Amino acid sequence: MNKPVFLLDIDDTLNDFSTSFIKEVERQGYKFDYKHYNDWDIARFIIGVEDPDKLMSDICEKLSFWKSLNPVPYAYDVLKEVINDQFDIILVTSPWIENSKHRKVKSEWIKNNFGFLRKKPIIFSKEKWSIAGPIIMDDKPKTLKSCYICKITIKPMHPYNKNVLSNYEFKSWKEVPGIIKSLKKDYHDYLFGDDGRD
Ligand SMILES: [Mg+2]
After folding, report:
1. pLDDT at 195
2. Which of 60, 132, 162, 188 is deepest in the core (most CB within 10 A)?
3. What CATH code is carried by the domain that includes residue 100?
4. pTM (predicted TM-score)
5. How many domains in the chain?
6. In terms of residue numbers, what domain contains 53?
7. CA of 90 relative to ligand 1 center, distance in Å
8. What is the pLDDT of residue 193?
């Protein structure tokens, strides 16, 4: 039997993009307004810089920044031991800049940090709701909102997506095995089909 497709985001789902970004902002001598940080537009919360969007572009244009991101704790073990066996993982992401170098840095990051996923397909797209697959794990508010009506959504919680609806949510990947257990029960027929009897 085919395994159900599991669409898996990379930034701030598998890596620590926003934490590393804020660290880099602070390393450069600026401050970050943690107290009011509650929106996807992270640049808005940088204090002391004249052009926050330019600072963000300068940081994110560097391939070395993307290479340096850390994997989120426990994601490796949970994906390898719980999700990879039961689902058909497809990585879905979009590079900071639409070019081959920025795409490559993402696939190499996967190879270096989640080696067992290195042969999985990576779809580069911002319109993840248009990709076939019943389940998506993603942190971006716009993606969650658009996918909520057509997929089972799993949200890694961040300050910017607190109030966005999803079917499941988690703070730590340690909670994900429990979510998978519930999801398989809650959506059994939808994901695995029924046994054909009326
Ligand atoms: Mg993301």
Report:
1. 63
2. 60
3. 3.40.50.1000
4. 0.96
5. 2
6. 17-68
7. 14
8. 82
Ligand 1 centroid to Cα of residue 189, in Å, is: 29
Tell me which residue of 9, 8, 29 sits closest to 17, measured CA to CA.
9
Distance 196 CA to ligand 1 centre (A): 38
List all residues 6 or more positions away from 171 whose beta carbon is below 8 Å from its beta carbon: 156, 157
Residues 104, 131: Cα–Cα separation, whole Å: 21
161 shares a domain with 172: yes
Residue 82 pLDDT: 97
Place of tokens 């997506």: 161
Domain match, 10 and 23 both: no
**Cα(156) to centroid(ligand 1), Å:** 9
Query: In angstroms, what is the span from residue 14 Cα to ligand 1's centroid?
Result: 8
- For the chain, list residues with pLDDT below 70: 1, 194-198
- Contact of 124 with 96, CB cutoff 8 Å: no
Same domain? For 100 and 149 the reply is: yes
Instruction: Report pLDDT digits (tens) over 60-82.
Output: 999 999 999 999 999 999 999 99
What is the whole-number distance in angstroms between the Cα of residue 197 and the centre of ligand 1? 40
- Per the listing, tokens 């926003």 go with 18
Residues 76 and 149 in one domain: yes
Helix (H, G, I), strand (E, B) or coil at 31: strand
Specify which residues 135 forms β-bridges with. 6, 152
Helix (H) and strand (E) counts in the chain = 9, 8
Q: How far is the CA of 47 from the centre of ligand 1 (A)?
A: 23
In a domain, 113, yes or no: yes
